Automatic annotation (TrEMBL):
This protein's name: MSMEG_0569 family flavin-dependent oxidoreductase
GO terms for MF: flavin adenine dinucleotide binding; monooxygenase activity
Keyword Oxidoreductase: yes
Gene3D superfamilies, A to Z: FAD/NAD(P)-binding domain (3.50.50.60)
The keyword Zinc is assigned to this record: no
Family annotation (Pfam families): Pyr_redox_3
Keyword terms: Oxidoreductase
PANTHER family, per the entry: FLAVIN-BINDING MONOOXYGENASE-LIKE PROTEIN (AFU_ORTHOLOGUE AFUA_4G09220) (PTHR43539), FLAVIN-CONTAINING MONOOXYGENASE (PTHR43539:SF78)
Length: 414
């Protein structure tokens, strides 16, 4: 490879490509290093029936946006993959596929030294665009489960047919967990769902997608510093909803009516017995409360702006647990597999620059670190709700490109 670039971008997904588009327009020498292939995560880490939960019209990258015939629909896995790859082709992004970065460190001569699987190179500036979800998380007590039960992380799940016969347990009710439970349920599998503290949101309300209402309300433009809880927002679980079959609510109570077994938070596995906290009812009520509070905000906006929108009755819970099951004898159950959907942890061990907090998260302000010339892009809640999604990565990329450009000019003038 060329031994020096003014900017090296690490990661060839939508974030890395977005900053590449801005650098290309500015004439800044750069290369994008992708350890696998462009947008591979959309195929390699999503299930077969995956769809976006945000509408297609919100898919707008710098200089490129959704141009299909279903702007209010939800792209499927293959469509998202092709959308991102099409973006890279649209401006001939300088991506080196199959090049993994194994080490980044500051150079004693200024800038950064990068060790890669294709050799060592120097960069004046580095943009880390590898997202915030690196290593799948599985709790240690999973080691106590019988070897007869197949275990996999949500990022490894593809379809119901791949799992062994028997019931399936899904642990976690964030976006992936709730949608995988739905996928299995629709395929006729008996599902045991362990509910966490994820909130939910209605798909549609008063004639429109809730995302459209919230977009008009400016909800997605509020910086994290102005959000309740501030930076703590980065640890929040996403609301569960689905874009499947044109989009609809995910109602765990309705699933229970249809035969799905629901449990509270999983605690441990002891002597072949799985134990749960009696938190199910509280979790369901809290998720519903969030969904209804969002409707309250939409109602207030409609009234404030004098918008003519149809009225809609509020949600009424269709099921409540008569009693909460806190133990499950695994030997007596028919569970043949467990899908763990309990998140990821970060892995920046290769980035040997002092920009991390005690939990291994990068310290930054809108992606700008305290170390000159080192930036992050595409992190969850990097600046706003949409930072880790298609919704706002374009804005974040432009913000960083402006700062990179200033440093390029200053360096050239020195």
């Amino acid at each position: 490879m060329t031994q020096h670039h003014e900017v090296v971008v690490i990661g060839g997904g939508q974030a890395g490509l977005s900053i590449s588009w801005h650098l290309t327009r500015r004439g800044v020498d750069h290369v994008v290093l992708e350890r696998d292939t462009i947008a591979h995560e959309w195929l390699d880490s999503r299930w077969d029936n995956f769809t976006l939960v945000t509408p297609n019209w919100q898919c707008a990258l710098p200089g490129y946006s959704y141009a299909g015939d279903d702007p209010h629909g939800f792209m499927k896995r293959q469509q998202v993959y092709e959308f991102v790859r099409g973006y890279a082709s649209s401006f001939d992004a300088p991506v080196r596929e199959g090049v993994a970065v194994t080490s980044v460190r500051q150079s004693m001569h200024g800038g950064y030294e990068l060790d890669t699987t294709a050799g060592t190179l120097h960069a004046g500036q580095v943009v880390v665009a590898v997202g915030g979800y690196h290593i799948p998380t599985i709790p240690r007590f999973a080691e106590k489960l019988p070897a007869t039960i197949q275990q996999l992380h949500s990022s490894q799940y593809r379809c119901s047919a791949d799992l062994p016969v028997g019931d399936v347990m899904v642990v976690g009710t964030g976006q992936s967990g709730a949608q995988i439970a739905e996928d299995l349920h629709l395929d006729g599998r008996k599902v045991h769902l362990v509910a966490g503290n994820a909130p939910r949101v209605a798909r549609f309300y008063r004639g429109r997608d809730c995302v459209a209402w919230l977009q008009d309300m400016g909800h997605y433009d509020v910086p994290i510093d102005d959000q309740p809880g501030g930076l703590g927002k980065r640890e929040n679980t996403n609301h569960y909803v689905t874009g499947r079959d044109g989009g609809r609510d995910i109602d765990l109570r309705q699933f229970a009516l249809e035969g799905m077994s629901l449990y509270g938070r999983m605690i441990d596995v002891v002597d072949g017995t799985m134990t749960f906290a009696p938190t199910l009812e509280a979790s369901l009520d809290a998720a519903d409360a969030v969904a209804e509070s969002i409707k309250d905000s939409i109602d207030a906006y409609i009234e404030r702006e004098g918008i003519d929108a149809p009225l809609e009755a509020r949600y009424v819970p269709v099921w409540r647990p008569e009693h909460e099951q806190t133990e499950l004898d695994l030997a007596a159950s028919n569970i043949g597999s467990i899908v763990w959907s309990v998140g990821f942890r970060t892995d920046y061990g290769w980035l040997r620059v002092g920009v991390f907090d005690g939990e291994g998260h990068p310290c930054h302000n809108r992606g700008v670190t305290a170390v000159q010339g080192l930036f992050f892009l595409g992190l969850p809640w990097q600046h706003t709700w949409g930072s880790g999604r298609f919704a706002a990565v374009a804005r974040d990329a432009e913000f960083l490109a402006d700062r990179i450009g200033v440093r390029v000019r200053d360096t050239a003038a020195a």
